[in-house]
Amino acid sequence: MPILEAEHICKSFGNTEVLKDISFSLEKSEVLSIIGSSGSGKTTLLRCLNFLERPQGGVIRVNGETVFDAAETGTKNDAEIRKRRLHFGLVFQSFNLFPQYTALQNVMLAKELLAKEQPDYKARKKEIHDEIEAQAQQLLRDMGLADRMQNYPHQLSGGQCQRVAIARALTLAPDILCFDEPTSALDPELTGEVLKVIRSLADQKMTMVIVTHEMAFARDVASQVIFMDDGYIVEQGAPEQVFGDLHQERTRQFLARYTQG
Known about the structure:
Layout: E1 4-13, E2 16-26, E3 31-36, H1 42-49, E4 57-62, E5 65-69, H2 78-85, E6 88-91, H3 103-115, H4 125-142, H5 158-170, E7 176-180, H6 188-203, E8 208-211, H7 215-221, E9 224-229, E10 232-237, H8 239-244, H9 249-258
Parallel strand pairs: 3-8, 3-9, 6-7, 7-8
Antiparallel strand pairs: 1-2, 1-4, 4-5, 9-10
């Protein structure tokens, strides 16, 4: 059974159709790379998976459970939406760290907020806090940031900020980790730092959906690749199929531009 199934996802902003009948599935431990030109709908698709946007049509299932169905007429409350969002971790291209918090505090924050909803939180407050802090420290050590835990975002490089963001996304143990062009704001050296972390997660069998313009990375790390254009999926398959046996001229033009040199 696939860990993720998206069926007939449609999304419009006003009269502009951004996602047009998007369907795909992903097996546990697979890595899906989504490529395509700017404005093709890649980021909107990730935002729909994370409930940051609500599609007008379609169904999303995780581990066989329907987490979104556009046919549902009832409005979900905030607690229910948060629960369903926990299936996904999202790493933004611009980090989106809270500038007033240290790296450690940024990683701890989401889990601490959820802990406050537990009925025994007041009785176990210190114990829960210590557990969350220990986990966050380990995640930051895993990211190579053992000596940067007390630094604020402005004291970190872009690559370090993105590694903090990855640790933050992992703290709630999501089923699927999503990346929205995680290296687009970084120079080549820092890009290498972040891609190394993502490769390590792939080696650890983390299920991931990655929007990227790093074609070599998409080809080498992905289990499957989707090429999007104008809101549609126009190429889909294993990396060797999408990169080596193209059916659409638009895909050829895109790859020629992003693989030069």
